[in-house]
Design brief:
This protein has helices at 25-29, 38-49, 72-87, 105-111, 128-133, 140-153, 170-182, 200-206, 215-231, 260-277, 298-302, 307-315; strands at residues 5-10, 58-63, 93-98, 116-124, 157-163, 187-192, 195-196, 235-239, 251-253, 288-293, 320-325, 335-337. With 340 residues, the protein is an alpha/beta fold.
Length: 340
């Protein structure tokens, strides 16, 4: 089934009890208004509907804040703003992001009359020491409880995780992915930690108390997490922040890249290629190796600026590589052939 068109309505920091050490939602969302009025919401919806194309489903998403942490009157007002588009059938579903500790029977009752299809939990980590260090204000138990309650209510769940939080380790991040994937959410988002202006993390970085991951480290760990989620049938719907451009003035440091997700998927293909090539690498009479993929995957296999081909040549210096495309192949397939 094709992915729906998700129309984002940003509510930066709204409903948040405090600011986490890493967070500056105004910078990420580029929105200054915390709660849009009905005219603003309608304008955003109409603008995004121009990009619907052939997609049959449209959903409205409230992001950038803590949706279920809003006052009840604000939740009702935002839903009321969306109601005309729901009544007309233009929008078929609603999703939102929220903190795990705000998912309760009471808050879910506020939205039960609306077609809520996905609740994205800002889990970030399942390590309580890491959560405490970044002033997250909730624990891993809150995430377990929220996931159980959403399942009980028959609501779809998504999870958001962060790569490179202060005090976290590669093993800890992989463990977070393992735990969350085992809870069977529908979706996952993987965000590398960036040092943003006007955050506590920026102060720690300035005083040498925090060092962000290098880009290659963040890509490798995200690849591990992506593999864990997808292995359990969890759709990874985003990797990297939209504000990841190398020259973004709000980003002080960190593994930012405008195509972070592409780098992760490219790295996974590189790993797959190495594993398959190793079976023929000991044959020193073999010189040419053909890597076969679907045409849509060719650029991913090459890597950013042909980085994967250079890396493969460094690992297997006696081999020469070429890429062949085959539209009959699946988008996740990679074949290695040795032409005579």
């Amino acid at each position: 089934m094709p992915s729906p068109l998700v129309i984002p309505i940003f509510i930066p920091h709204s409903g948040c009890p405090h600011q986490c050490a890493f967070c500056n939602q105004n910078a990420i969302t580029r929105e200054t208004e915390s709660l849009p009025d009905s005219a603003r919401m309608a304008a955003v919806i109409r603008q995004y509907l121009k990009y619907k194309g052939t997609r049959s489903r449209v959903e409205l998403g409230f992001f950038g804040g803590n949706f279920l942490g809003l006052d009840a009157r604000h939740i009702k007002r935002l839903m009321a703003n969306a109601q005309p588009f729901l009544d007309s059938g233009v929008i078929q579903g609603i999703r939102f992001s929220t903190r795990p500790d705000t998912v309760t029977e009471k808050t879910l009752d506020l939205v039960r009359s609306y077609p809520v299809c996905l609740v994205e939990l800002g889990a970030q980590s399942m390590n309580d020491q890491v959560l405490d260090r970044v002033n997250r204000g909730h624990t891993s138990d809150d995430t377990f409880r929220a996931m159980g309650l959403l399942e009980k209510k028959g609501l779809g769940a998504g999870v958001q995780v962060m790569v490179g939080l202060p005090g976290d380790t590669r093993a800890g991040m992989v463990r977070t992915a393992d735990i969350l994937a085992g809870l069977k959410p529908q979706t996952a988002r993987i965000y590398p930690v960036l040092v943003l202006k006007k955050t506590l993390l920026a102060q720690w970085y300035k005083h040498g108390k925090y060092q962000p991951l290098a880009l290659d480290q963040a890509v490798e760990i995200s690849a591990d997490m992506f593999r864990i989620f997808t292995r359990e049938g969890v759709a990874v719907i985003r990797m990297g922040l939209q504000t990841s451009g190398a020259h973004d003035p709000t980003v002080i440091a960190g593994p930012g890249h405008p195509a972070f997700g592409h780098l992760v998927l490219s790295h996974l293909l590189y790993r797959q290629a190495v594993k398959k090539i190793q079976g023929i690498a000991d044959d020193r009479t073999q010189r040419k190796v053909r890597l076969c993929v679907h045409p849509r995957v060719a650029s991913r296999l090459r890597g950013d600026k042909n980085s994967n081909l250079r890396r493969l040549k460094a690992v297997f210096p006696h081999l020469d590589f070429e890429i062949q495309t085959d539209p009959a192949m699946g988008s996740d397939q990679l074949d290695v052939k040795c032409p005579a």
